[in-house]
Amino acid sequence: MPTTQTLSLPEARKLVLNSQRVLSPARTGRAIEATLSAIRHLGYIQIDTISVIERAHHHTLWNRNPRYKHSQLDRLVEDRKVFEYWSHAAAYLPIEDYRYCLPRMHNEIAGAGRWHSKDKKLMNSVLARIRDEGPLRARDFEDPNPGKKAMWEWKPAKYALEQLFIEGRIMAVRREGFNKVYDLTENVLPAAIDVSVPSKKEYVRFLVHSFLRAQGLGRQPEITHLRKGMQQTAREVIDEMLEAGDIEKITIKKDAWLMLPDAMDVLSKSLARSRAKILSPFDNLVIQRKRLQDLFGFDYQIECYLPESKRKYGYFTLPVLWQGKLVARMDCKTHRQQGAFEVRNLVLEPGMRKLEQFSAALAAELRAFAAFNQCAAISIGNICTPELKTVLQRQVNL
What we know:
It is a single chain. The chain is α+β, with helices and mostly antiparallel strands. The chain has a domain at 301-396: 3-Layer(aba) Sandwich (Aminopeptidase). It has helices at residues 9-20, 31-42, 56-62, 70-78, 102-110, 120-133, 156-166, 185-188, 200-215, 220-223, 231-244, 263-267, 289-296, 355-372, 386-396; strands at 5-7, 45-46, 82-86, 90-94, 136-137, 170-176, 179-184, 248-252, 255-259, 277-278, 317-322, 325-335, 340-348, 377-383. The strands form four sheets. The protein has a five-stranded mixed β-sheet with strand order 10-11-12-13-14, covered by helices on one side. A hairpin with a 2-residue loop joins β6 and β7 (179-184).
């Protein structure tokens, strides 16, 4: 087995950022193909309901493809190149990866999952209606107990639909607003898609390769994150892949990590350090918080789920990337009717310098991000230093 290589922390960060393509040059060709390429490369795009700014899946794709439009994702689902299912959370996935969702679907059908309780009679009734009437939404089914419900409380038919969805018996053919439209899987899944169930080891190999392709480097707990019952198999598969040369070990700050054999080629590519990037809290780069702390020294928590009195930075704080580091966090809100984008709070990481250069890079990104959020005006609220607020306010209005 070859000698383990060593990377410095700045090199490790560069490898991760290049692998994530968050600062890569814009791709040529059709914009929709760039969006599909991003989804295939990253392996999944997390879906989130929060809409204080553009939703996470749109935001994450825009950060990889500046020509991204909502209609592209809709078209990719319509063309059966992308589908909705569950990764570590609700996500858009490449259709060619469908078979790697089958183990979870089969577990759910067998009752080994932890989704909703099953009302088989209602589920069969829902299936029969879709079979007879074609694609349906939850709102197409009556609620026997109408009235106001708690945030995550659904009517019975919605529970049945989601159970059928997680079992793989129905799929989302599109969304209307943020509501899924469901059809039978047999009517949606392309005939050419492989539906053979992967073995446990084959599934873990897929996880290892997909994670390292998208993230540059990783450790076993990150690769099997939120996937129960995989640890022992993952250890065995990783040992086999190391022995075969399919993956390699790398040392960073005396800790062992894993990477693909072509990782050094990815590392050698240039990185647009001078650009600032405003990231979604659910971006693939930042979604695993311990990894983020270990690699970037960025202690990050999304605070929208906390009571307002316990929030330190704001409701929906966004990490800000610059010079290959995570240097700030920014709480934002779009006022869509007024066409105004509000920076409610901006806090820099300790030791941040070069405020003039940073504010110029952030202002340029803010103008682009505001436009993506369909806002023409930008207002600057609470900023950690008066000097930075003055400079940033001037630069965003250039």
